[in-house]
Amino acid sequence: MVTGSSGIGKSHLLRAAAKEARQAGLAVATRAAFELDRAAPFITLASALQQIEPPTSAFAWVSEAGENQFRTLDRLAAALEDFVSSQPLVVVIDDAQWTDEFSALAVRELVTALASSPVRWVFARRRAGESTPGQQLVERLIRDGAPEVVLGRLDDEAVGQLCSKVVGATVDNTVLALAASCDGNPLQLEQLMRALMATGQLLVRDGIATVVGDQLPSSFVTIVEQTLSGLAAETRQLLGAGSVLGGRFTVDTLARLLGTRPAALLPSIQEATAAKVLVDRGDGLTFAHDLVRLAIYGGMGSAAKALYHREAAVIGREEDRSPVEVAEHLLRSGRSAREAVAMLREAALEVAPAAPSTAADLMLRALDVVGDDDAERPELVADTVRLLASAGRLERAQRLGEAALHAGLEPPTEAALLLGLAEAFKHAGRNPAAVEYASRGLSYPDVSEAVRARLWAVRAHAQFYTGDLTWADRAGSNAYASGMAAEEYGAAVFGLTARSLAAQAEGRLDDALAHASEATEIADGIGGEAAHWHPRIWLGDALAVQGRFEEASAIFRRGREESERLGTAWSAPLWHYYHAALLTAAGRLDEAVAETDAGVEVAENHAAYALAVPLLAGLARLAVLRGETSQARGYIERMRRWMADGITTAPEDATWAEGLLQEATAGPEAALGALVTIYDAMPRRSLLIVQDPGAAATLVRVALRAGDTERAELVVTTTRKLAERNPSVRAHEAAAAHAEGVLRRDPALLRLAIDGYREAGRPLALAAALEDAADVSADLAEARAFAEEALSIATSCGAGRTRRRLEQRLGRQPARQPSAESVLARLSQAERPVAILVAKGRSNREIAAELFLSRHTVDSHLRKIFAKLGINSRTLLARLVGEDGTNNAST
Questions:
Q1: Which PANTHER family match (predicted)?
Q2: 202-205 and 248-249 as β-strands: parallel, antiparallel, unpaired?
Q3: Which H or E run includes 439?
Q4: Over 50: is that where the pLDDT of 890 sits?
Q5: CB neighbours (10 Å) of residue 126?
Q6: How far is residue 745 CA from its own chain's centroid?
Q7: Could you tell me the pTM of the whole model?
Q8: CA dist., res. 114 & res. 683, Å (int)
Q9: Are the CB atoms for 562 and 534 separated by under 8 Å?
Q10: What is the pLDDT of residues 143-187, one digit of tens each?
Q11: Binning pLDDT at 50, 70 and 90, where does residue 335 land?
Q12: How far is CA 509 from CA 412, 505, 583, 722, 821, in A?
């Protein structure tokens, strides 16, 4: 990351870096982003890859990439992996603050996905006043550890060297004194020297340059004006017209604007490039720096600028230029404001799927143009609020939306506005606000049934997370009824999935499965928006809590494939979350960690922070199980930072993670204090035990050790009722026996729990029941056998905290760490096959397919492998694995 002010030398440094990369035999992809890039999704990165040197057809398809972001990103990662398998690549982006929104998202994903591949990225940016997607990208990468080079002003010695180089002679103190006004800015210094030479105010005698004359430039604008004064009138006119066209323009377009033939402009272009005012980039002309362009533009008269902008708008339409570019010309021409607003709105709707924040900015620009009394303003406000909200800019959306609501709108427009706010606040995890907005929208009698269905659906899910299960179920039922009546099937599906969640939280597992199954049938039968809600997420979960793990795994696999095909990136973190829960239940903790870590990465890359919170809580719980309490504390701190912004999540995620960490580090009293909301929601809400049957005994154990027998009894009663309501779920029957066995210290009940967990395939819960049985057994041999089996399970699952406790109990020495020479032995069971396939030359995509993992999960495994081995190269990993295999074979 290269950061610096305008004209400080960032572009020069990037050109030098690219030149050095080419000389070293690397492929180089370069792009200087322009402000208009923000209105053309994917143009920044796609253009860089299409101009790669040496030329290749590997990325020719990117210009035709569709709106399916998920598929485009996946295909791009695969194409880059394939390309760099034969030649390393450097991607160089100048003026990165103008990077378009989709390119920024792609870079966030690709930097992580290709961290183990020979790809390096170089960015230059200046800090702009506004928080653009490009600025956010750079700040995020710096926070994640990317090194930043901050360019400052040149010192006095460097100023003298630069001035001497430009004029071709040693400069004296008169030159240096004038140069001091440029404050060490290389661009201004170079322009100043050229201006002095152009106007004859720099005299060279005996190899020494001296300033002469009285009218010396005092600002950058006057420096540029002096440079222009030495050029022909036709060249000055050409530069004025070019300054209106903006960042990069062709000779043909410039000729049309000036009403002449392209060939007639060649002498002027040659003069302007010789004076270093224009630069010929091969595919077009650009100013030596945007500061130069702005200085020239600012020096033009208003009438001339308006005329040029009017003609540029006509040319832009005929050349099918960006509607944003044409609209800006119209606005600056002083005419056709209404037409400009229409074009801005059209452009916003076009880019919204890939770049909602950019679309929102376009709509805000349109709102700046229309008056407060304009008949179109209410509809524009509603669209703008929706776009701001979907881009996560909630405070701005709320301010604009509330102002419009207080001004008074027609009921249908007001309801649509409230729906947009409700959906956005729900997506952002701010569930109380989502409930409020949805309820306000539902209070209008004239709301269409379709809008009403969507309002009910949002309210249903939001109320589940605020803890009101009765209303969550009722709202979900209303969403289903209204959605089916209005053929708003997406709302019907979403409402049913809310009912599935509420039923599961209340322990009605057959109802939960029935609602999720019906939602899936509707989505499969109707398709369209209904399918985009991916009800298989909740169907798989409903199957998993009943212990039907193989069916759930198959459902998750099919659902994930559908989401990749449909390009619904919002669902990716949820697939990781629920698949990780399945792996945890099966005792495959290393794989669960990689899956959850991948989910966090995807959620944060896509700014889906409401989904990052439960995933971070999952990482914290897994870290406690593995005995990594310092890591758990770090995950909890990250989770709290997001929750401090108003994100709410189910207590079974955040609160349970906090309680487990407190129990491991601060003791039972602290744990009880952290978990009080979970205890006090029982028996009405038993979701934690539904999802993790072994949690019941942990809750009893914590309450007993903290001296709270009443809450321990409550847990036992809740777990017993859950088991009675769902007699076919063997794990819940075992959980009831386990919880009561811990409370009563009853060996018989604990033996029932052991048998039940063994049959249900819950190894971690089984290990806990075995350890508890060892505590109460009067038979020392039996107690030791229980402890030995528990230790074996904990070791195989990677549950380090339990393993260490049992090793101490049994008087065992801690397991010896593998020798430094044994590379594969230092890796987990989940990491070894990934390392072996890397050694065989497989790409991440091929590894994911072979091991039935997502690409993000493979990325997560590789990050952990590299960290363990202290390396950062696939080639080195392959060599280490190969040497490890040779050494093992020889022994």
A1: TESTICULAR SOLUBLE ADENYLYL CYCLASE, TRANSCRIPTIONAL ACTIVATOR DOMAIN
A2: unpaired
A3: helix 431-442
A4: no
A5: 18
A6: 49
A7: 0.83
A8: 48
A9: yes
A10: 988 999 999 999 999 999 999 999 999 999 989 988 888 889 898
A11: low
A12: 38, 9, 20, 9, 50
